[in-house]
Each structure stands twice: as structure tokens, then as C-alpha cells.
Amino acid sequence: MVDHASNNTVLITGGAGFIGSNFIPYFLDKNPSINVVNLDLLTYAGDLKNLEEIEDHPNYTFVKGDICDYALIKQLFEEFKIGGVINFAAESHVDNSINSPAQFIKTNIEGTFNLLDTARNFWKGKYYRFHHISTDEVYGSLGEDGFFTEKSNYQPNSPYSASKASSDFLVRSYHHTYGMNVVTSNCSNNYGPKQHDEKLIPTIIRSAIKGLNIPIYGNGKNVRDWLFVKDHCIGINTIYNEGKAGETYLLGGNNEYDNLTIAQEICAILDLNFPKISGSYKNQIEFVKDRLGHDFRYAIDASKISNELGWKASENFDSGLEKTVNWYLKKYQFY
């Protein structure tokens, strides 16, 4: 369990991104005695507008910077007396990792090392918590059946997932070698408000309302397990505060859908609420050249965290998807 006895300042990295910016307001609300320092480089995937609701919160501080900057990380630990880390910071878009893998290696591996090693040196004699946020993609691809569990073999198939697998192993090694109080969580595909426009669901919504072709890779049959981002935030908070040191926990939504079905479901929501003059938004769906090495299916067995920590995803997929569509329609000023 996390030790808050001596210090209550948590460094959250990548907090201006999709999951981080959903998590920080929730975390501050659920842990009122904790101070948060949010370190984010504000690359294309980070946006401080995502955190406007807490920018004046007395327990919140934003620092613009890079987890690859070892001197900066050391300075933050010394200045704020950091007593916990939750590491969201990562390059995460698979297509970008295929086209430009070098930055993924640097951020996801070297950056994680910087955080771990600074924490190890600064926390000597303390049992503060280091929570590493990872992905189900480290386990590779499933066939028609079966599920990933915490005991699944690592078989990453893209530069992105390989870099995340490497960072997972670094975190594991710092527990077994140095006795650090680490936990790792691997999640399925998140959806919900504040996700970057380049991701699948925002792309479908944006393309549909702008009258553009809705691009779907290959035949659209690649399957993902979808987890509403608020459910993920609840899970992260639970693991950070209650998870067992050295353990990995998988979080999934138990919502398996292929990409074509996701596109059709979104189009159906739009057809019902914002009908076109003629035809359906589904007519805009276009199959495009498949992603290189595209994993067929991801699915998670989340029974460990359910049995040990009492967490399970609660958002109904239909209502979660409708909430997500409505958020993006407001963002794109469709109404």
C-alpha cells in the first residue's frame, strides 16, 4: 500500500494528455490531502485546456518539461519533496511509432528510467509509491478467443508496444533489485472526453460531421476491448492507494467491438440526433490500407483487480459512447 505518512506531494507525468487530464481532477477530488505536480512537455498530444477546471486548485502545480530531462526531474524531487509518482508520460500513437520510432524509444524507455532512478536515489529508506501506466498492447495479439491476464507472455508487435514493454520491465526490475514500491497497470483501449483528435473514435466523429470519408483500416474487423476513461481513472486511484507492491493489474471494460462496428455505432448516434438531409453517415465509411503489423484482437481478463481490490468497469458502453460523441460535438462546435 502507498505510504503517505511522510510526504503528500505526487508527481504526475503526462497529466495534460487524454487519460492524465481525466485522472488529475478525479485524483485531487478523491485525495484532498495530496498535492499534485503535473509535469508535461505539451507536445501535440498534451493540452492545458483539458485541465482548465483545476488550474487554480490550491493543491495543483503545472510544470512544463520533459521526463527525459534528468536534471529537471531531480530538481522537481528536491524542490517539491516528491513522495509518489504516477507515470502517464509516453509517446502512444502506434502509427507514429511505425513512421518515427526513435522518439518512442527515448521517451518511453529513457524517460521512465529517469523517473525510476531519481525516485530510487531520493527515496532511500522510504516506501513511497511509483505507479507505472502501461498498455495491453505489450501482450501482442489474440486470436478469436482467449484473454490477456497478468501472467500472459509479453509479445509486443510495434515499436510503441515494444517501448512500453521495455519500460514495464524496467519498473519490475527496480522492485526486484532495489525493493522499490512499484505497481504497474496495463489497460485496454480507452475512450471518452479529451482524447486527441488523431485517435479512432474522435477521427470517426470529426470525419462524419465534416462530410469526409471515415477511414477504417483493412476490413475493419480488428477487435479491441473498450474502457471508459472515468472507469480507468477510478482503477488507477484504487491501484495507487491499495495495490500490492511489485504487482501488475490489468484493467479492461469487457466491451469487445471491432473497428467497423464502432464506426457504425457512432454513425447511428449521429443519424438519430443530427440526421443528414439525405442518407446515413455510414455511407461515408471508407476502408483504407491496413496498418503495418496490425494486431487482430486485444481482450482483458480483469478478474485479478476485481477480486483483490474490488474494482470493475461500470460504464455501459452505449451510454459511454453517447457521452463521448456529445463531448466531441460540443468541442467541434457542431451545436
Structure description:
The protein folds into two domains: 234 residues, 3-Layer(aba) Sandwich (Rossmann fold); 66 residues, UDP-galactose 4-epimerase, domain 1 (Alpha-Beta Complex). The model has no long low-confidence stretch (mean pLDDT 93). Strand 5, helix 5 and strand 6 form a beta-alpha-beta unit. The protein is an alpha/beta fold. 44% of the residues are buried. Helices cover 39% and strands 17% of the residues. It has ten helices and twelve strands.
- Secondary structural class: alpha/beta
CATH superfamily of the largest domain: NAD(P)-binding Rossmann-like Domain
Order of adjacent strands in the largest pleated sheet: 3-2-1-4-5-6-10
Q: Largest sheet, if any? A: 7 strands, parallel
Rg computed from alpha carbons, rounded to a whole number of angstroms: 20 Å
DSSP summary: helix tally: 10
Low-confidence spans: pLDDT under 50, at least 5 residues?
none
CATH topology of the largest domain: Rossmann fold
Which key features would you list for this structure?
335 residues; alpha/beta; Rossmann fold; three-stranded mixed sheet
In brief, what are we looking at here?
The chain has 335 residues and is α/β, with parallel strands linked by helices. It contains 10 helices and 12 strands. Helix 1 packs across helix 7 and helix 4 packs parallel to helix 5.
SSE topology:
Elements: E1 9-13, H1 18-30, E2 35-40, E3 60-64, H2 70-80, E4 84-87, H3 94-99, H4 102-122, E5 129-135, H5 159-178, E6 181-187, E7 189-191, H6 200-209, E8 214-217, E9 223-228, H7 229-242, E10 248-251, E11 256-258, H8 259-273, E12 285-288, H9 303-309, H10 317-331
Parallel strand pairs: 1-2, 1-4, 2-3, 4-5, 5-6, 6-10, 7-9, 8-12
Antiparallel strand pairs: 9-11
Helix pairs in contact: 1-7, 2-4, 4-5, 6-8
